[in-house]
Design brief:
- The structure is a single chain.
- With about 575 residues, the chain is mostly helical.
- The protein is built from 25 helices and 13 strands.
- The relative contact order is 0.15.
Length: about 575
């Protein structure tokens, strides 16, 4: 666990456009609870709130979103109409938020055992009518890339409104109106950010607000957080003094008259609208800030992995905790529940899987019912490359091997052995000679090629997404347990066996965890070699979104319908393949 306390929150800063002070969460909520029957009147206020108005922002924003989503969209399995199921839609939006903000939106996570529209808490709480429209589409026809664009924009808008409300509350508590000095603005922003990070721990938050000096004991890198807050504020001040739209928030926003009016270098005053921009910029960079701390932990764990398998023996993990690195003190049971413990080898004993540990919920700096801010998933950059290069949901094994060779170097290149290439051929046999990019077996294969970046993909439902608070006091090992594990005779054998070299023989040794059961992201879809037909029904939501985007001049691609089909279960020669 990277923090001494699991920092949590209740609301979130969000989308990096100029926020509008007259907008409110209630306005968005009422827009969805009172939608008329006429489809043409259902989403205009949502799209306007999400996109902003004026200066061609709408078209530019949509173009950027389409470009961002396009590679992953092309890689998803689709029906003959070019549409995807709800799980694939969630996966696409999930990838966008994790890559753009390091936000893990609750309900979108692909590892969930089951998935429904109601699981997306931020939507069910603030846009219930939109949720019902999604549920209707999910059961009747599937989704287009524009449905993903609308969902992204809506979630960003709702997150932004949450941050505006939270910051406004801080200003109100301090009886602040109008403009304030740089120092006062920094104080208000810092108070809001601390409240953001500790909202789910009211007792800790109360103590820190009563005695601000306790922040240093609450947050491991409090000085770094302060530098982030003040540095972003001064960066905004610098660009404002130059008369430039320099911040990332302002580049996507309409100009603020209050910001411009306070733009004289002599005045050095900041409005609440200025603070909203700064908070949004902090939020945008917060994932990168936290990512650097995650990489520090990764470096320590990697140094312990003499076998170069992406695994650290529990004996070393807990010995480091005894030596003073309290961050590595999760109990064996909690590590197992998180899916971060490999117990497949009697020879090596239990080992902590480095990427699974880093990406576990215990290492999220912020955890709310609606979303989490966690360590980055480094495997996604590899997937980005493969998705763009393949341009479809599946590929021949030889093509993937060639592409992987472009990504590998050193130890990774050594792992791409003939046995691993044969394993990829075996995976392809399960799917008619092609490897499905979004399949559990291929994700597992990538894990053994990139054991430090790609997490081991457990079967759905095999792990528990429970924070330390949810798990209970047993999440942390006792001192006695640490001593027991650190001195266990069963796992202290520091051998120089073939497992430490990354050779083919070593690969066979540490691939004892390989599981042959397949799981696929796609649902109700037709395999390329199948030819079944189904019905397609156009929903009012789709027709309206298409009309709005067409009117904006940013409708991309053809909308011609293709036939919808269903993909049957495929039996593997070693295990079964099923769809989730």
């Amino acid at each position: 666990m990277i923090l001494c306390r699991s920092v949590a929150a209740g609301t979130t800063p969000a989308q990096w456009q100029q926020p509008q002070p007259q907008q409110s969460q209630q306005k968005l909520r009422s827009a969805f609870t009172t939608l008329p029957d006429d489809p043409s009147q259902r989403l205009p206020s949502l799209l306007e709130s999400a996109l902003g108005v004026g200066n061609g922002v709408r078209e530019e924003r949509l173009q950027k979103l389409h470009a961002k989503l396009s590679p992953t969209w092309k890689s998803l399995q689709k029906d003959r109409y070019g549409r995807v199921g709800f799980k694939s839609l969630c996966y696409l939006v999930h990838r966008y938020f994790t890559q753009t903000y390091s936000f893990f939106i609750s309900g979108l996570e692909p590892q969930r055992a089951s998935q429904s529209v109601e699981d997306i808490i931020i939507l069910t709480e603030s846009a219930p009518h939109y949720v019902s429209l999604l549920a209707n589409k999910a059961s009747r026809q599937g989704f287009s890339v524009d449905d993903a664009v609308v969902m992204v924009l809506l979630i960003e808008s709702l997150l932004r409104e949450s941050s505006i409300q939270g910051l406004s509350a801080v200003y109100k508590e301090h009886n602040v109106s109008g403009t304030v000095s740089l120092g006062k603005s920094a104080q208000l922003i810092q108070k809001y950010m601390v409240r953001w990070m500790l909202m789910a721990q009211p007792q800790v938050l109360e103590a820190v607000e009563r005695d601000p000096s306790m922040a240093a004991a609450t947050f491991e890198d409090w000085q770094g957080l302060q530098d982030l807050f003040t540095g972003t504020l001064r960066n905004f001040e610098h660009f404002r003094d130059l008369g430039l739209e320099g911040s990332s928030s302002r580049s996507n926003s309409r100009s603020s008259s209050s910001s411009l009016s306070s733009g004289s270098p002599m005045m050095r005053s900041f409005s609440m609208e200025d603070a909203q921009i700064v908070v949004a910029d902090i939020s945008q960079s917060f994932g990168s800030f936290w990512g650097t701390r995650c990489m520090d932990v990764k470096a320590k764990l990697t140094a312990m992995d003499t076998g170069k398998t992406g695994r650290v023996k529990l004996v070393k993990f807990h010995r480091a905790a005894l030596d003073g690195d309290w961050r590595l003190s999760e109990s064996k049971e909690y590590l197992r529940a998180l899916g971060a413990l490999d117990e497949s080898s009697n020879w090596h004993g239990p080992r902590v899987i480095i990427p699974n540990y880093l990406q576990a919920i215990s290492n999220c700096i912020i955890t709310t019912p609606e979303y989490r801010t966690c360590c980055p998933n480094e495997c996604e950059s590899h997937m980005d490359y493969l998705e763009e290069a393949v341009g479809g949901p599946s590929a021949e094994p030889n093509l993937l091997v060639s592409l992987i060779q472009n990504l590998t170097a050193g130890d990774e290149q050594e792992r791409l052995t003939s046995s691993m290439q044969q394993q990829l051929l075996n995976i392809a046999e399960t799917h008619g000679g092609l490897v499905q990019l979004h399949s559990r077996l291929f994700a597992q294969w990538l894990h053994f090629i990139f054991p430090y970046e790609c997490a081991f993909p457990h079967l759905k439902g095999a792990t528990q997404e429970r924070t330390p608070q949810e798990y209970g006091f047993e999440f942390m090992a006792t001192f006695e347990e640490l001593k027991e594990h650190a001195h266990s005779q069963n796992v202290t054998q520091n051998t120089t066996s073939n497992a430490s070299t990354g050779t083919a023989q070593g690969m066979d040794d540490w691939m004892t965890a390989w599981s042959h059961e397949e799981e696929l992201l796609a649902e109700r879809l037709q395999a390329p070699w199948e030819n079944r037909f189904g019905n397609h029904i156009k929903s009012p939501l789709f027709l309206f979104v298409a009309a709005v985007l067409s009117a904006m001049g940013v409708w991309y691609g053809k909308s011609a319908l293709q036939e919808k089909t269903e993909l049957p279960m495929v039996m593997s020669h070693r295990g079964k393949s099923h769809y989730i």
